[in-house]
Every structure is written in C-alpha cells, then in structure tokens.
Amino acid sequence: MSDRRSVNRSMFWRVLRRSVFANRGRLFVVLLALGAGAAITAALLNLQVDAKTRITSDFTSFGPNALIVPRAADSARSSGATLPENIFDQLSLNGTLHGARASLYLVAAASSAANPQTSVQVVVAGTRALGAQKSTAAPSSESQPYDNNQHCTAGARFATRLGIQASDKVILRNGQHEESCGIALIWQHGDTEDDQILPSLGEAQRLSGLPGRVSVVQLTLRGNSSELNSYVAQLQRRFPDVEVRPVRQFTEGEARLYNRISGILTSTVAVVLILTALCVMAAMTNMAMERKNDVGLMKAIGGSVRRVLRLFLAEAALLGLAGGLIGAAIGIVISIGLGKAVFGVAAQPRLIVYPISVALTVIVAILAAYPLRRLVQIRPAAVFRGEE
Fold this sequence. Notes:
Helix content is 54%, strand content 20%. By secondary structure, it is an alpha+beta fold. Strands 3-4-8-5-7-6 form a 6-stranded mixed β-barrel. Strands 2-9 form a two-stranded antiparallel sheet. It starts with a helix and ends with a helix.
C-alpha cells in the first residue's frame, strides 16, 4: 500500500512538472502578472505599516499631546492655581510616555543687566524636562538651556523688545523677588513662546514665591488614539486630585490622517489584487483549453476528478508562491524609495509584510484558477472523438 502511494505521489509531481513547463511563454505571463501584483502589494503594505510610525513620530515632534492641570474648581477659585511638583517627579518614561516637562507660568518685569532702567513685561515659563535635575552648574551640551538655574532661553520677539542677544544677562523681578540668568539661546518658533523667557523651573519658583509648585505638566505620548486615552485614564486614576486632559486636536488629527492614508493604500491593494486575479484567470482559461486532451487522458486511465483538480490547484499555488516570493522582495525595496518620496525619509522594511504579501499572492493565484473547474466536465470519450 505504501509503495502504491509512493508511486502515485511520484506520478503526481511528474505530471505537475510537465504541466507547468509545457508552455513556458504562458508560464512567464502568469509569473509576470503574479510578481507584479505581489510587488505592488508588498510596497503599499510596507508603506501602510511604516506610515503609522512616521505619522506618530511627526505628530510627536509638534509638541505635547496631553496635559496635567489643576482641577476646574481650583482654577475657578484662583486664576493662579498650581499643582504639587511631586506629581511630575512620580512620572517615568516608558513605551507610551515619550517625554514630559513641568512648567510654572508667571508675569514678571525683565530688564537687561546692561540697561537695568529699561524693563518690559514678559511671561516667564520656568520649565524642567523629565529626568532633568535642578542644578547650579553650567549646562552641558546634552541638556536643554532651561534645565539649568543660571541659564535661560528667550523667545525672538521678547529679545527684540528688550534689545538683548545671546550671552546677555537678564534680570527678572516679581514683587520683592528678583532672579537673573544668562541668555543661552534665542529661538523663534512662530508661536506664543516667542514672547516668553524660559528659565529653569527652580528659578521661576523662587521668583513667584511658590516653591515645589507647577502650573502644568505637558506630556508627549506615543500610540494610537485608544492607547493614549487609556494612558490618560490610568494617570487620572493615579492622580485623582488633578485633571489629565488629552489634546484632542493632536490625537484626533493623527487618527484621521492615518485612517485616510490606510484607507487609500488598502483600497489600492484590493484593486491591484483584483486586476492580478483577472489577468491570471485569463491566462489560466487558455491553459485549461489547451489541456483538454491531457485531462481526458488522465480521467480515461482512472484519474479521479478530485485528483485532477488537486493537480491544477497545486500548479496555481506553486506559480503564486514563486511570483509572490520574487515580487514581494522587489516590492519592499520599491517601498523604501516611495517612503522617501512621500514622507521625506526612506521607509523601513517591515518583515511582517513579506509573508503577508506572499500569502495574498498564493490565494489570488488559487482563486484565479477557477476556470479550471471546466476541466471536470470533460468526457474522455468525447475528447478522443474530437467532439470537445
């Protein structure tokens, strides 16, 4: 019995090889169609997977997308409501929390050390980044200027109003409190920070007379909208005495943009696979008509309908596998260039895309073999008489 199965298996693969290579021209057409479909599919799927990372990274660079602020009731009672700084100290960077900074805002009079008689009102935004420690040493090249008590950053419009430049010394006064810092950097963001001065958080606390207090904690979170909402909810349960608010414009804008890109790429992949299936189906139909005699002979010598169908489905699957393996590899390489053209940065090859693209190509090839079902209806006697 085992010998008979071995002979049948050997005969099956011999007939399959003969069928595959019987018409090399048509074989090349089918492989070309499947390879092109696999290449486009892999390129678009790789861009779709990479787009999520790119969009998240781009939106993260725009600024914080969640805030920890005093409760609304506290803010209503006092316009200068603040938070305890130890809330900020309890945070730690992880997969979702990409960055955080605590800020204390106040309005102070600023004057240049070179011209102390002239002063202007300025918004002081004392800031400390997560992990940055209060220090009186000079800032290193790895730290932000506002992480140090003796250095601060000035907005471009404020610097213009006060007539100061980088390395100048600025004196800040708020009632009986006075602090000074050297301008380490003047930057221009094109937003409200251009009218501010950013000393260290400790300096702003001394200037306002509010040690250990902050106005807001700004969070930069990574992840999709549901992940961000989940993280915000966790923080709210952890700190019930404050409000944790997601910045909806960022999270919703990111979700809308990714959904649009994902929808366009998915639709394009579907169209490409349908066109590939139609092209392969046309080639398979011609192949089926050419093999009527072979099928009639196989059925005449006792080949079952199931075995005949299995033979042609195996042929289609092998063609799909070969076209998918070659085309998907080419498609991932193509996606690198497309990513650079679309996002300005070359797309990273995503390994998960390769087996998915190959599997989709094999499925398309098997489904495109539908016309071969006509071979089941062939009658050996009619074929030998030349009636079919």
